[in-house]
TrEMBL record:
Name of this chain's protein: Lysine--tRNA ligase
Catalytic reactions of this protein: tRNA(Lys) + L-lysine + ATP = L-lysyl-tRNA(Lys) + AMP + diphosphate
GO cellular component: a single term: cytosol
GO molecular function: ATP binding; lysine-tRNA ligase activity; magnesium ion binding; tRNA binding
Organism of derivation: Microbacterium sorbitolivorans
Residue sites binding Mg(2+) 1 per the record: D417, E424
Residues that hold Mg(2+) 2 according to the record: E424
Compartments where found: Cytoplasm
Listed PROSITE patterns: AA_TRNA_LIGASE_II (PS50862)
């Protein structure tokens, strides 16, 4: 008997159901000659798709006949066997469905009996027959021939109950089968990628690829994953950022360059962080952090338009978030001073900052510097309360070793972080292109590493050699693709990654 979607398959029944389905698979293989491939035929005479039929014939009146024969395939997600007429809902990959009607009059005794005996929920089935609308107005195929395209050995989950989060992220294939939101998120991600690339093409940027295995990690303050190359007999690092290679490309004359690829950081995982994530970085010669902020706003707003048709995006929980208009730009030190009620400047001593942090209940980070303390305090007093899209400008110099010093404000650098919906979405710089100052910054970072800071950068001699050949003034930005999907959908990071790493 075919599984019913109204009843879940209890854990203790799974093995029994699998045994029953394995027996059906064996029977199909026994009938290989007549079944043309047994349980998993190589090909089938599919002539169209379920979405195409719905688009062409979705408005048929109840009881209408088309005289058109179509051959389609889909996964059975509902089945009802009633005497001389069987009904099944076939689902395509996008979630669209069509009804298959298997009747004694059209397929004969033997074929109808085989359908009842061998077909289960979850099977992929090919059907061919006339496209009609049932008496209840449901678009259908009046089947004249059918064939199992792929036998499912395990039952589907209950289609009327929500999958728990663990199942959704560990068995994303089930999530995609049963949940509209999962399919929509996967498609939204693809739409976002197309939009980003189109915006870059419109702005005359060139897409390149840089190494994921590196002899030295760089481009970010992060702990790397370490591996070993047997071919070169050397220790290698998984990329934490493509920055230093993309800047080499700018040195080489690619004035507008970007990359979308994977980064790996051996750090914590939570609702906004994943050890493996998709990253966009872009660099534009003869621009600065203001120009790259303009570009970043355009990239995100165009992506919102591509996914939602508007910059007023609707999140999965039904709430709305406005990504339109010109986004606010605030400076870190003045905004912190206003929120904290005391003046904090680049001249404020580390001892003063530590005392104020302890008084405010803000944990002093290990290997604290002036800049790290300022950023921790800012997160506490300002960052946790930001909701509207906001560029936070002008960071402490000691936390930004790859950034140019501010042209008019001593003690800060021309860097921004973009906050959307309360979390960091992207970061942008006026890039440091002076190799002498860059070497000094690297040396300071090396001292931090010697003191035990495993996120500090190392001296990269090859990158410094590239800068010594001359890099033009440039603006650069980096943005997490997974977080961009979070901003557009309101979902957590594990929902926006199709196959996230889980413990």
């Amino acid at each position: 008997m075919t599984d019913s979607p109204e009843t879940a398959a209890p854990e203790e029944d799974i093995f029994e159901q699998k045994a029953v389905r394995l027996a059906k698979r064996a029977k199909l293989i026994e009938q290989r000659e007549s079944a043309a491939g047994g349980a998993y035929p190589v090909s089938l005479p599919v002539t169209t798709t379920i979405p195409a039929l719905r688009e062409q014939y979705g408005e048929l009146e109840a009881g209408a006949e088309t005289g058109v024969t179509a051959g389609v395939a889909g996964r059975i997600v509902f089945s009802r066997n009633t005497g001389k007429l069987c009904f099944a809902s076939l689902q395509a990959g996008d979630g669209s469905r069509i009804q298959a009607m298997v009747s004694l009059a059209n397929v004969g005794d033997e074929s109808l009996a085989a359908w009842k005996e061998l077909v289960d929920l979850g099977d992929h089935v090919f059907v061919s027959g006339e496209v009609i609308s049932s008496r209840r107005g449901e678009l259908s195929i009046m089947v004249t021939e059918w064939q199992i395209a792929a036998k499912a050995l395990l039952p589907l989950p209950n289609l009327h109950s929500e999958l728990n989060e663990e199942t959704r992220v560990r068995q994303r294939y089930l999530d995609l089968i049963v949940r509209d939101q999962a399919r929509e998120t996967a498609r939204a991600r693809s739409t976002v990628m197309k939009s980003l690339r189109q915006t870059f093409e419109d702005e005359a940027f060139l897409e390149v690829e840089t190494p994921m295995l590196q002899v030295q990690p760089g481009g970010a303050a992060a702990r790397p994953f370490i591996t070993h190359s047997n071919a070169f007999d050397t220790e290698l690092y998984m990329r934490i950022a493509p920055e230093l290679y993309l800047k080499r490309a700018v040195v080489g004359g690619i004035d507008r360059v970007f990359e979308i690829n994977r980064n790996f950081r051996n750090e914590g995982a939570d609702s906004t962080h994943s050890p493996e994530f998709a990253m966009l970085e872009a660099y534009e010669a003869y621009s600065d952090y203001n120009g790259i902020a303009d570009l970043t706003q355009k990239l995100i707003q165009n992506a919102a338009l591509a996914v939602h048709g508007t910059t007023l995006v609707t999140h999965a929980d039904g709430s709305e978030y406005d990504l339109g208009g010109e986004w606010a730009r605030i400076s870190m030190y003045p905004s912190l001073s206003e929120a904290a009620g005391i003046e904090i400047t680049p001249e404020t001593t580390q001892a003063e900052l530590e005392a104020f942090a302890e008084k405010s209940g803000v944990e002093v980070p290990a290997h604290a510097t002036h800049g790290k303390l300022v950023e921790e305090l800012w997160e506490h007093f300002v960052g946790d309360h930001l909701t509207a899209p906001t560029f936070v400008m002008d960071f402490p110099v000691d936390t930004s070793p790859l950034v140019r010093e501010h042209r008019s404000i001593p003690g800060v650098v021309e860097k921004w972080d973009l906050y959307i919906n309360g979390y960091e979405q992207a970061t942008g710089y006026s890039e440091l292109v002076d190799p002498v100052i860059q070497r000094e910054r690297f040396v300071e970072q090396a001292k931090l590493a010697d003191r035990g800071d495993d996120e500090a950068m190392r001296i990269d001699e090859d990158f410094l050699r590239a800068l010594e050949h001359g890099m033009p003034p440039s603006g650069g930005m980096g943005m997490g693709i997974d977080r961009l999907l979070m901003s557009l959908t309101g979902l957590g990071i594990r929902e926006t990654i199709l196959f996230p790493l889980v413990k």
